[in-house]
């Protein structure tokens, strides 16, 4: 990407290649609860608006896990039938998916039990975009999680999705699944002015910028346009960087930020 070379950056600010997520304390509860569900396997729920960084946080946390102790299975294709979801899990576990659900369940659960008891490997299943899961999946998932007369937990599962996911799980038909959730977390947009400005400064530094490329007024324009969502802010910054590169500019003046915002809205 030409704009990276133009500004001497190693990657896009707030992009997927960022090495160190900004944290002023909001992420620490997620880190501690994440580790807790590794030490005591169970079911976790992480919700938040689109673009607040849910997947980015889990991506960074799982990147540090030893493959000798954990098998991380990530799924974001959730708008399918429940059998497709279990078949995806079976394939990830190295199984040939059975046609019938009963046999498919037995095969998967036997593999999970073998991993946990014989190989001391904990399966970690992260289901992203979980608000799109079919309702029948929510209804029968508690039965799937039942191991050894429900006396043991042999895998950790994180349901990750939009705020509507948490509302769905509060409804009566999902009571059995809701009762199994051991950790409930919510990630919020960064709406406060000083916190958002600190996020942008950190993102630029993490990407290799030796100095701030935009003024506080430009950061404020980004905050309002992105509504405090890091993904949206990153998209606008990248667009502004491309515009500046085309114009041979070495910084991002307010008028360029405004242009990026307007073109992104168009």
Sum up the structure in keywords.
Helicase, Ruva Protein, domain 3; Rossmann fold
Q: Cα distance, first to last residue?
A: 23 Å
What is the overall number of helices? 12
CATH fold-type name of the largest domain: Rossmann fold
Tell me, what is the CATH class of the largest domain? Alpha Beta
What portion of residues belong to β-strands?
5-15%
Instruction: Show unreliable segments.
Output: none
Gyration radius over CA: 21 Å
> In the residues, how many domains can be counted?
2
What's the total count of β strands?
5
CATH architecture level-2 label of the largest domain: 3-Layer(aba) Sandwich
CATH superfamily of the largest domain: P-loop containing nucleotide triphosphate hydrolases
Can you write the helix and strand succession as a string? Answer: HHEHEHHEHEHHEHHHH
Q: Quaternary arrangement of the chains shown?
A: single chain
Strand order of the largest sheet: 2-3-4-1-5
- How would you classify the helix and strand content by structural class? alpha/beta
Rounded average pLDDT? 91
Helix residue percentage:
40-55%
Describe the structure.
The chain has 266 residues and is of the alpha/beta class. It has 2 domains: 2-21 and 191-265, Helicase, Ruva Protein, domain 3 (Orthogonal Bundle); 28-187, Rossmann fold (3-Layer(aba) Sandwich). It is built from 12 helices and 5 strands. It has helices at residues 2-7, 28-39, 54-63, 82-92, 101-117, 135-144, 163-169, 175-178, 193-206, 216-226, 230-246, 254-265, and strands at 43-48, 70-75, 122-127, 156-161, 181-187. Strands 2-3-4-1-5 form a 5-stranded parallel sheet, with helices on both faces. The chain is elongated and about 60 Å long. The two termini are 23 Å apart.
